[in-house]
Amino acid sequence: WGDVTAPEPLSISPDRLAAVPATLAPNPAPVGAASVLHLSLDRPQAVSLALYDAVGRVVWTDETDGLPAGAHRLPVATGAAFAPGLYHLRLTLADGRHRTLRLVRQ
After folding, report:
1. Minimal CA–CA distance to 50: which of 76, 72, 21, 69?
2. How does pLDDT run across 58-85, given as a tens digit for each residue?
């Protein structure tokens, strides 16, 4: 089997969680072929998204160069290429704050 390296943990420390913008929700839930992440930023900054499958493999990523403060709708790839099941969507802001959401793909 060789060396097995565990993926980066998807847990969030409580101090980091409190610092992430409060408005963060996938739509629809559970997700289907097309999903949108509703996000509200407290200040302008770059955003990166990474979608992990149930075993921790990165299956999709997206980055923005910078978004202004305020409400945003970011598309998330959850189309036909993704099998039904549990996924984790990790949002990372340019200032280091991050949050992970559980998504269920129908």
Report:
1. 76
2. 999 999 888 998 888 888 877 777 888 8
